[in-house]
Amino acid sequence: LIIFAACAFVSAQDFNCPDKSGFYADPYQCDLYYRCSKGQAEQKLCPDGLVFADENPHKELCDIPSNVDCGDRKELQE
């Protein structure tokens, strides 16, 4: 659990927020996303069984996989 938390912290630190605040998808993991505010990223994770819908950066929305096109974001939490 400690290793996971450390990896999560590093991942959020490596994510570069766009200029505008909002919610942005992780480039690799479909159920992982970031809340960006004033250039700072906060890592967020959808509940089990849901993935992040990234069509609108102003909405924090997790949905069932059949409603979301994850594209190249193939990884999911274990």
TrEMBL record:
Keywords: Chitin-binding, Disulfide bond, Glycoprotein, Repeat, Signal. Residues 14-72 form the Chitin-binding type-2 domain. GO terms for molecular function: chitin binding. PROSITE patterns: CHIT_BIND_II. SUPFAM superfamilies: Invertebrate chitin-binding proteins. Pfam families: CBM_14. One of its GO terms (cellular component) is extracellular region. This is Peritrophin-44. It comes from Pararge aegeria (speckled wood butterfly).
